[in-house]
Design a protein that fits this description.
The chain is α/β, with parallel strands linked by helices and 195 residues long. The protein has one domain: Rossmann fold (3-Layer(aba) Sandwich). It contains 6 helices and 7 strands, in the order E-H-E-E-E-H-E-E-H-E-H-H-H. It has a 7-stranded mixed beta sheet with strand order 2-3-4-1-5-7-6, with helices on both faces.
Length: 195
């Protein structure tokens, strides 16, 4: 059983640790934990990982965020996969940092990458996990915020966040979206403050 898991982000070192690259960071963490490397392919970097008889193609599009749909459409066709075997991981500034939301359809919520994928696939019937990055910016500061670097505190939380997303994707492939949503769609645990 094959699946296409797409992490959204922008290519280039200057974007590497920015909030908008949460999708790339999650897939990088999965590849690293699985001891596999990404190879440069058409429309993106691709790595392959397996879990319980499932085979995941991890794709980091090289098309820039606003044109992510080109890469997703190409790889879905190349792998001959139905929409229900597609999962996209993206950042979301409408959610508090660290909050995860898995959905099997729905609007792009103002996210240009998700919007472009929906437009080119001519459907919103595919699974996405949105990773909350918060919205700590003043009026007119949205672009600088999403393209800004994660704070040291936020960077510290990325590995644990990645583990939760990866587990959610594995669950999705094994027990289905509805049951996976029950575990994924929870608020992050607040760390106890040291007194």
């Amino acid at each position: 059983m094959n699946y296409l898991v797409v992490g959204l982000g922008n290519i280039g070192a200057e974007y590497a640790h920015t909030r908008h690259n949460m999708g790339f960071m999650i897939l990088d963490a999965w590849a690293q934990a699985s001891n596999v490397l990404f190879s440069t392919e058409r429309y993106g970097s691709v790595a392959e990982v397996s879990f319980k008889g499932r085979h995941f193609f991890l794709l980091k599009p090289s098309t820039y965020m606003n044109l992510s749909g080109n890469a997703v459409r190409y790889w879905l066709q190349k792998l001959n996969l139905p929409l229900e075997n597609l999962l996209v991981v993206s950042d979301d500034l409408n959610l508090p940092f660290g909050t995860l939301r898995m959905r099997t359809s729905g609007s792009a919520g103002g996210h240009n990458g998700l919007e472009n994928i929906t437009e080119l696939l001519q459907s919103d019937q595919w699974t996405r996990i949105r990773v909350g990055i918060g919205n700590g910016f003043s009026r007119g500061g949205q672009v600088d915020f999403v393209l800004g670097a994660l704070s040291p505190e936020e960077q510290e939380q990325v590995p644990e966040l990645a583990l939760r997303v990866i587990q959610g994707i594995k669950d999705w492939s094994v027990v289905g979206a509805q049951r996976a949503m029950n575990s994924v769609n929870t608020k992050p645990q607040k760390k106890e403050e040291n007194s």
